[in-house]
UniProtKB/TrEMBL annotation:
InterPro entries: ADH-like_N, Chloroplast_QOR, ER, GroES-like_sf, NAD(P)-bd_dom_sf. It comes from Vanilla planifolia (Vanilla). It holds the Pfam family ADH_N. It comes from the Eukaryota. Residues 16-326 form the Enoyl reductase (ER) domain. This is Enoyl reductase (ER) domain-containing protein. GO terms for molecular function: oxidoreductase activity.
Amino acid sequence: MAGKVMHAVQYSTYGGGAAALKHVEVPVPTPKKDEVLLKLEAAAINPVDWKIQKGVMRPFIPPKFPYIPVSDVAGEVIEVGSAVKDFNNGDKVVASLGFTNGGGLAEYAVASSSLTVHRHAEVPAADAAGLLIAAITALQALKLGGAQFSGTGNPLNVLITAASGGVGHYAVQLAKVANLHVTATCGSRNIEFVKSLGADEVLDYKTPDGAALKSPSGKKYDAVVHCTVGISWSTFEPNLSESGKVVDITPSASTFLNFAVKKLTWAKKKIEPLFAKVNKEDLQYLVGLVKEGKLKTVVDSRYPLEKAEDAWAKSMDGHATGKIIVEI
């Protein structure tokens, strides 16, 4: 592929939203010795992608401009580095490109073999690409909240906020894989959808009980997977069991302050920030669940690469049900 060019979408400065994305022709990247070159089939846009564009990780990410965004991809291996032993040309895979390198909004991308996993023939590219950040965040949040996926855990009660979103819709399904009792919050239009994912109780967050997070059955929550913003500790606290824990996947300054105070005072009820990290073991587990029919990616909308800016704008709007996928 050396010397060939590809279609890609990039931006050259912080800010600007979807309007700042530009369609360009750039050289196809060359894999290093521990990398694979992928012909991309699908890429999943996550809120963190446009938050990086806004500058939340400056000056470290992007390390330089112009920058091709998006890290969650699925595709086919077409070239392997000299040190790669686990992959061959033609293998169908799912991979995390990482935020530093990015590269997902393009026809080809290089991925570290350590963050690339074979995907089964039964797992479509869009379903696989959606798993990475969102499903791994859901899995790690549930584990931090005390869920066991070995079949030996206690039957915990868990609350999942914003359960119709990217992370939330995976969290509901994974909680049921772990045999947890699930109360979920979402908007009224998504109540039946969230029930279909397996939630035992669903609250409309705009109702008084929904805003107060009160379980319809009166259950106290052993864990909360908190997938939204704007809910205070004083709202969570009365709904938690004696040693209940809130896992905040988008932690704010108040989250860290509250976390520190709870730790210093040995409080039983606590809130913990989560910074999920993609790893091969969790990704293999999730791909296996999809193959077995125990986990599904719900696709909100699909866009061709030529309309990637529309997908970007849809994600920024913040009301997607499931995942937003760019098909390449």
